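User: I'm curious whether this sequence folds into something compact or stays loose and floppy. Could you predict its structure so I can see for myself?
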Amino acid sequence: MAANKNLQYTLRYFDRIGVAEGSKLLLSAANVEWTEEHPEWPLEKPNQPFGRMPVLIEKHSNDKDFVICESGNIERYLARAYGFIPSDIRQAALQEQLRDQASDMFAAFISQLVAKSEEDRKENFAKFDGLLDKLVEVQTKQINANGNIGHMFGDRLSYADIVTYAFYKIIVVGMVKRQANIVNIVKPKLTPQLIKLITTVEANPLLASYTARGDSLAAIVTKPTPARL
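Assistant: Here's the prediction. I'll summarize afterward.
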């Protein structure tokens, strides 16, 4: 699909950092005109394609609007449309699997938040903690394979970079109200390579106007941890 910088987009989601974060970053990186819409919920639930969000509306001046939903689907559509993912299907798959792993991690994180008993919570947290260790290991290995230059693949911003940054922002910044100690859980696990990627993505000129809006993930993960007395 050829990118059309003249298209306008509306992204429907809740007014918070959540699973639409990757889509917001991709829209910003694409340098297209886009706005956020926060439907009243659950009043507007029946008016969404599958009764859930996020929903992306691509506005066409001479045609019917194109409407899609599901966070991963929206991300991949935008990534392909604006050149953040390779056209080669094998190279694309290497990036997309990293996104799917992050999605599984988020599901594991939520499972320990909504556990019905303390025993279940501890068991689910142990699963999340182990999966996070493995995810960090795999991400760090890929960054090293790419020369540790602040990118997962190549020398420019990619889909893999964006969704990796988005995952940690969702967990560390977006979920802190639901789990106050999440920064202390995740931050010590982050390798210098991942921290470099996070700071590189956040400093990218294509993303600066969006990442400057709220709390800086880079500032959180680079802030020295106070020494224990």
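Summary: The radius of gyration is 18 Å. The first strand starts at residue 8 and ends at 12.
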